[in-house]
Specification:
heterotrimer, A mainly alpha, B mainly alpha, C mainly alpha, A: mainly alpha, two-stranded antiparallel sheet, 21 helices, B: mainly alpha, 2 strands
Chain lengths: 485, 489, 503
């Protein structure tokens, strides 16, 4: 059998592109000692190029195809998630450019790109080993990034916390992987599924392995009870990193979670849907109730992101094409929304010098445009049309109802209501309260401005023009669930 | 292709709202001029829609449909029937008058008018929706303008509380209605949100009985149904004048309209099963709301509670599930919308000039602002169900419907009318007649724009009251359709 | 011209409204213009109603000058107007009294524009009740009339006007709630509001059910709802308590219209709706009605006797006199189809007209003296005849008319009532005669306290004689009282033929 190297290369074009970009940034970092800020723009341009190239050239096959010796599955799921990661990285780069303490540091972009590379592999990995490597490639740069501001104690603490949690959950997950390997004698996901089906492995053992694996994924998506790191890490990490962690990294977690559950454990559906539903419930309630009490906007966003993970898990628990497309749609919407949120938080935080919610008083007078952007973001997080978050929520709730998980949908709805309360509270502070500095205009750099405009336009576009992304999501869901199109 | 008049009506305020946001904040005249231009045009176009609706032909007219998300059977699908055409007109006129009475807003007028127009987009979109998804889309669109406008421009004492209470109550209701709507979508097996198709889905009786309450009560919250009404007075009172007008006038009708469209029309068996409950709750609305209104000392709270009372009549009309009751409910939605907008407009004018809403401190304002007084009196007469005004034309059939459905409801609810008469007359006397407190000797008369707003609203109520033929054929044709869905009871 | 003759009743009905609307555009400061505008505008319906009277075919069957247009299709309600002898008489009474009342209100100085507009609207409301041949339309005008009256009392009334006006409107609205419910129920059951149709169908309707109750019970309930509504308006004892307050506090012209026309709406309601629609129930309950009427006659007279306030005295006299109307109606209800019934109803209708004239006149005269003395306390007058002989003479005349002196209008009508009722309810009639005795007593008492006795020196030099405008107001009433008293045939002829048709 001829190995078509060209085709194989093309299949992992985004990853190769990222690798090249990493190389370019590394080299330029050596030479552009004076003007490292340009590195950011280079990274952004590179990511943009990769995004476009991927969009155009890396058309996945109609049915999932295994390639690279069964290491990688070529399908719509991987395709879409890679786009999500690259887009997330590109926007994060823009925010980093706008951030004085990050912009001039080449290694920041290097780490970010490396992490993105890992995520891309996560999205398409079809082998336990590949999966583990990808996860670690993603995680290791992230804890460096979280602790990037070495002079800031909170940042360092945040990095270490992330490291410890990541290490611990990775270990548990790896343990689970070994069980799976032990039961099936293979590391290839699809084969594991086959062998678990025909082998004589006790159900309880399979479920136990599944639980172990879920610990690792639960950490990535910051679902309750694996969420303890999130608020502290978001709070301490630099703004762009917090944004990246809460979006792209979470999306990567969902990508592997969905793939693992659907592909490896199709026979244990009843068990894992229940587990996922419980995780979802716990995440929603804990996230939202704790968010209610927050006075710091970053911590509020952290708890809200835990809750958002809960909503997305509803889509997973539905175990249906609609649910999975809902998950993908939700993640895309959430990525844009939360990145915009952290972008605004960064801008305001730097201008005001505080991340307290009360520091947002007078924002609508000080910078009406930023206030409006925050309005869009908060409403999208709250699931209000015409913003993307509404469609995401609608799809996952619909999926739950379709599958008869009415109780879960009702709990989701109740949480949406609770969540709206604190989102509106933020808006109230922005629009109602006055501050003494409200007549000073608030500077928005071009990079941050560009990123925000992209996000806001994206949020509204995804909230109004639903069909294209939904089409892709459905295709992705179909391949993930082995459903013929 | 015919002129897409409904879409134009929906999107004119949207475009204007976005343009306003792009204007510099200092250009106050441009901002409000643009807003007024948009709502005036909209008002005229809604008049065109209203008068070009062919009641003899009936059914849904001026249809427009574009695929939105075909994979899930979602489309942008607008059209009006005899029930919604008057409501579209009402939304048009209330938005128009809302801008007129807000002419002098000076705190961030750009955001104010922009949000107000968003609210108009939302309500117009709901009234014209024939697609369940689209209905929700526009329904929820109202959340942020409602909340922010109450909180930012509302009355300082209660705005934070009132705004949040209102928003959350309505959101809770709408979310449960959403669950019901999704259940309808999946339960039908048709994979479409097209309400015209869903009407024919023939849901199982058990299914309808289970989900009806989700939908009807969910939307009913916005309609102010007992015991979920308490947002209404608090919210209306906290809101700035134009928003009170839109909220009590139009938004509450959005709730009842959606409850009718989705609850009764899609789940008729559920409606039959639960009609007794709705009738009972609505009767409490009517009598209790009126009683509470009577003991208020705050001018605006009186009107806030009167809305609760009057919306009860709409719900009675619905739940009677017969042609007379539904006809009356349809007319009452229009009549109450216009009436309550007028009330809140006048309350706002009085407050702007006296800076108090305490009835005990007001008095004799007839001499200072006769137009406002006459406007309020006309609204009051409508509210009392006085013949010759639209309230009578609407309430009379509602009671006939109640007689047919459950006579005891008619007998109890009629008390509401007597109580209403009592508190309206007391308020009129205390606020507009009697001695003028010395503080208000210098109070100025209302502006020309205010007078136009009062005049337009009052003229509509009198016209409908004297010539029910202006609206009754439309509503009757819409009711005919509903009766067909209910199995021609 | 044809158009005018074909729409005479519509014109009569809506010219006041139209004039009121046009008045909105007249300057509020030009008080004289406003007064004359209102006066002339109210004269036109009077002239038109005379035209109707002239063209009215007394021998014709059924309603005349009928106009019929769909008003509210879904409810099967229409704009259906028309007159017969009974309603025509009362229409003419209304259009006759309104210009006089407007003329009497030339003494109003404050907010003349609003006052006149309300007065004209009030006229439309009252006329509409008399002219309607559709139950829903009847109710529409029935209620509409309340509003201007409320504001007239509330805005231009006496010191206790707030209490009185609210009591007035809540009483009457409360009374009409039952009416409203019943009309709704009738509409549901019968499917039409058209009165001629209802007259044919309703009395014989068998299948009406309400809460599973039999038809007869339902009809009884509706009957009582109607009776209560009209009884409050008349007012029949014990529903009368609003009346003294409202009358006392209303401005003079308001009292004139209130006593002269508004109370007649109740009596008209009995004749037009209750008796034709509920003959069995009316027969069944006629005894109670007669009892209440007798009590109204006696207690009204006793009440009047006890008053110290001149205006209150006149107000109670209305209760007393309207009792005869109800007595006649009760007799007709009991003995429907007999000669006695016809005579009694004739008397009742004529009593409404004569009481309309005399009570309006009395209230006007009370108003005249009140404007000059600013007191209505009978004890503060005394011996005024010497100061104002012309006024005194007029008062004497009108009071005698009210008392029922033969030769004046009141005698004819009361005689007819008593003649009609005597064979039916002998005891009630006998008791009412005693009431009549009290009537004489209180009127003479009032006359004595005002005109005779020792002169109260306080008024010497202060009390001016009745002026020309006031004489112009009262003179037509006096003339009519005399005319009917001497030669009642011209009016009884018209009434009688209608009554023959119905009873």
């Amino acid at each position: 059998m001829m190995i078509d190297v060209g085709r194989m290369m093309l299949e992992i074009l985004p990853e190769i592109g990222l690798l090249i970009l990493i190389g370019v940034v590394l080299v330029l970092d050596l030479f552009w000692r004076k003007s490292r800020k340009k590195l950011g723009w280079v990274s952004f341009a590179g990511l943009l190029l990769i995004f476009v190239l991927t969009l155009v050239f890396v058309q996945p096959a109609r049915l999932p195809q295994l390639t690279w010796g069964g290491m990688i599955s070529l399908d719509m799921t991987g395709y879409i998630f890679r786009m999500i990661f690259i887009a997330g990285a590109a926007l994060t780069v823009l925010y980093a450019i706008a951030n004085d303490s990050l912009a001039g540091r080449g290694e920041f972009y290097l780490l970010l790109l490396t992490s993105t590379l890992g995520m891309c592999f996560m999205a398409s990995a079809a082998d336990l080993i590949m999966l583990f490597l990808a996860i670690e490639t993603t995680t290791v740069p992230l804890f460096v990034l979280a602790g990037f501001l070495t002079r800031d104690q909170k940042s360092v603490e945040s990095g270490i916390k992330y490291l410890l949690f990541a290490a611990m959950t990775s270990a548990v997950m790896l343990y689970g992987f070994t069980w799976l390997y032990g039961f099936s004698g293979t590391t290839q996901l699809y084969q594991i599924a086959e062998r678990l089906k025909y082998g004589f492995v006790p159900q309880a053992a399979v479920v136990a392995a599944m639980m172990l694996v879920l610990v690792g994924f639960g950490f990535k998506i910051s679902a309750v009870p694996f969420h303890f790191w999130a608020p502290d890490v978001y709070d301490g990490a630099p703004y762009p990193v917090a944004g990246f962690l809460s979006t792209a990294s979470k999306a990567a977690g969902f990508a592997v979670l969905a793939r693992a559950l659907f592909v490896i454990f199709p026979l244990q559906t009843e068990t894992w849907t229940l587990i996922v539903a419980l995780l979802s419930t716990a995440s929603m309630f804990v996230g939202n109730l704790l968010a209610l009490a927050q006075k710091n906007i970053k911590r509020l966003l952290a708890y809200s992101s835990i809750a958002q993970a809960g909503y997305i898990l509803i889509g997973v628990a539905a175990d249906s094409p609609l649910g999975t497309s809902g998950v993908i749609y939700y993640l895309s919407a959430y990525l844009l929304t939360n990145l915009a949120a952290f972008g605004i938080v960064a801008l305001v935080g730097r201008a005001v010098g505080s991340d307290e919610i009360s520091a947002y008083a007078g924002l609508s007078r000080r910078s009406p445009a930023l206030a409006l952007a925050m309005l869009v973001v908060m409403l999208s997080l709250g699931g209000i049309p015409p913003f993307a978050g509404f469609i995401g929520k609608l799809l996952v709730f619909a999926a739950a109802i379709e599958r008869g998980l009415i109780w879960l949908a009702i709990l989701g709805v109740i949480n949406t209501i609770v969540a709206l309360f604190y989102y509106l509270t933020v808006l109230k502070v922005i629009y109602l309260y006055r501050s003494e500095e409200e007549d000073k205009p608030l500077a928005v750099s071009s990079a941050a401005g560009t990123a925000l405009v992209i996000c806001i336009v994206g949020i509204i576009a995804l909230g109004v023009v639903i069909a294209p992304l939904y089409g892709w999501s459905t295709d992705a869901a179909a391949t993930l669930l082995f459903l013929p199109r | 292709m015919q002129f897409p008049i409904l879409s134009v009506i929906i999107f004119i305020p949207l475009v204007a709202a976005l343009l306003i946001l792009l204007l510099p904040a200092q250009q106050r005249n441009w901002i409000r001029g643009l807003a007024l231009g948009a709502v005036t045009l909209d008002f005229l176009l809604t008049l065109v829609v209203y008068f070009s609706y062919d009641a003899a032909a009936g059914g849904y007219q001026m249809l427009e449909r574009f695929a939105w998300l075909p994979a899930l059977g979602i489309s942008y699908y607008v059209g009006v029937d005899g029930i919604s055409a008057p409501l579209v007109l009402m939304a048009g006129v209330v938005a128009f008058c809302g801008v007129l009475v807000s002419w002098n807003v000076d705190d961030r007028p750009r955001e104010f008018f922009s949000f107000l127009l968003f609210l108009a987009v939302s309500v117009l979109g709901v009234f014209a929706s024939l697609d369940l998804f689209q209905l929700f889309f526009f329904f929820e669109l109202a959340i942020f303008p409602k909340y922010l406008m109450i909180v930012v421009w509302g009355s300082p004492k209660t705005r934070e509380y009132g705004g949040m209470k209102l928003t959350l109550y309505l959101f809770i209701g709408s979310m449960f209605a959403l669950l019901g709507a999704l259940a309808i979508y999946f339960g039908s097996g048709l994979r479409t949100f097209d309400m015209l198709a869903l009407e024919k889905a023939g849901f199982a009786a058990e299914f309808q009985r289970f989900w009806f309450l989700f939908v009807f009560l969910g939307f009913g919250v916005l309609g102010g149904i007992f015991p979920f009404y308490s947002w209404a007075p608090d919210g209306h009172v906290a809101a700035p004048t134009a928003i009170s007008m839109m909220l009590a006038g139009v938004e509450m009708k959005v709730g009842t309209f959606a409850a009718l469209r989705v609850g009764i029309m899609l789940l008729p068996e559920g409606a039959r099963h639960w009609a007794w409950l709705i009738l009972a709750l609505a009767t409490v609305n009517v009598v209790y709301g009126a009683l509470i209104a009577m003991i208020q000392s705050d001018f605006k709270y009186v009107i806030g509670f009167s809305s609760v009372s009057h919306m009860g009549l709409v719900l009675i009309g619905f739940a009677s599930l017969n042609a007379k009751g539904l006809l009356g409910a349809g007319l009452q939605m229009f009549s109450h919308g216009v009436m309550t907008a007028l009330f809140f407009a006048v309350v706002g004018m009085v407050y702007d000039r006296t800076h108090t809403r305490d009835i005990a401190r007001l008095g004799g304002l007839y001499r200072k602002m006769p137009w406002a007084a006459v406007g309020f009196i006309i609204g009051g007469l409508v509210s009392m169900g006085m013949p010759g005004f639209s309230g009578f034309v609407a309430e009379f059939p509602i009671f006939m419907g109640a007689w047919q459905a459950m006579p005891v409801v008619a007998i109890i609810a009629i008390l509401g009318i007597l109580i209403t008469a009592a508190y309206i007359l007391l308020v009129v006397r205390r606020v507009f007649f009697g001695d003028l407190p010395a503080d208000y000797e210098m109070v100025a008369d209302i502006s020309l724009l205010d007078k136009i707003a009062i005049g337009v609203l009052a003229a509509m109520m009198i016209a409908l009251g004297c010539f029910p033929v202006l609206m009754e054929p439309l509503v009757a044709s819409g009711v005919g359709r509903i009766m067909a869905l209910l199995g021609g009871m | 011209m044809d158009w005018i003759f074909n729409h005479l009743v519509t014109l009569i009905l809506f010219i006041p409204t139209l004039a009121a609307l046009l008045m909105l555009f007249l300057p509020a400061a030009k008080i004289t213009l406003l007064r004359w505008w209102a006066f002339i505008a109210s004269l036109i319906p009077f002239l038109l109603s005379l035209v109707v009277w002239a063209r009215f075919d007394a021998d014709g069957k059924g309603f005349q000058f009928v106009e019929h247009t769909i008003w509210y299709r879904s409810l099967n309600a229409s704009y259906h107007l028309g007159v017969d002898g009974i309603s025509l008489t009362l229409v003419v009474l209304t259009t006759f009294l309104t210009p006089l009342a407007i003329l009497a209100s030339y003494s109003i100085q404050e907010r003349v524009k609003a006052y006149m507009i309300l007065f004209l609207l009030l006229e439309t409301g009252m006329l509409g009740v008399f002219l309607s041949l559709d139950l829903l339309l009847f109710f529409v005008f029935w209620e509409i009339g309340l509003v201007p009256m409320y504001f007239l009392i509330n805005q231009w009334g006496g010191s206790n006007r707030n209490y009185a006006s609210l009591k007035f409107i809540l009483y009457t609205m409360g009374g009409s709630l039952g009416l409203l419910l019943s009309i709704q129920l009738m509409g549901v059951v019968a499917g039409t509001y058209d009165l001629p149709l209802l007259f044919e169908r309703w009395a014989n309707l068998k299948e009406a059910t309400l809460l599973g109750m039999p038809t007869e019970t339902v009809k009884s309930i509706i009957f009582w709802a109607f009776v209560v509504a009209f009884a409050i308006k008349v007012p029949v004892w014990p529903f009368h308590t609003w009346l003294p307050d409202a009358h006392t506090e209303a401005p003079t012209a308001g009292s004139m219209i209130l006593a002269g026309v508004l109370l007649k709406l109740g009596g008209y309601g009995f004749l037009r709706l209750v008796l034709p629609l509920f003959p069995q129930q009316a027969h069944q309950f006629a005894g109670y009605l007669a009892l209440l009427a007798t009590l109204a006659v006696i207690l009204g007279a006793l009440g009047a006797w006890a008053q110290k306030d001149f205006k209150r005295l006149v107000a109670y006299s209305s209760i007393n006199h309207m009792g005869f109307v109800v007595l006649g109606i009760a007799a007709a209800a009991w003995a429907a189809g007999t000669e006695n019934a016809v005579i009694a109803v004739n008397g009742a209708v004529l009593q409404m007209v004569t009481h309309g004239l005399s009570s309006a006149g009395m209230f006007f005269l009370v108003g005249v003296i009140y404007e000059r003395t600013h007191t209505r306390n009978l004890e503060e007058y005394g011996g005024l005849f010497t100061l104002v002989p012309v006024y005194g003479g007029i008062l004497l005349f009108v009071a005698m008319g009210s008392l029922g002196l033969p030769g004046l209008a009141g005698f004819v009508s009361e005689f007819l009532v008593i003649r009609g009722v005597w064979p039916v309810f002998t005891l009630a009639t006998a008791l009412s005669m005693i009431g009549l005795f009290f009537t004489g007593a209180y009127i003479l008492k009032a006359l004595r306290q005002v005109l005779h006795g020792p002169l109260n020196e306080r008024w010497v030099g202060h009390l001016t004689e009745i002026n020309l405008r006031e004489i112009v107001v009262i003179a037509p009433m006096m003339a009519l009282m005399l005319l009917i008293g001497v030669y009642p045939a011209w009016i009884l002829d018209v009434i009688n033929r209608a009554v023959m048709m119905w009873f």
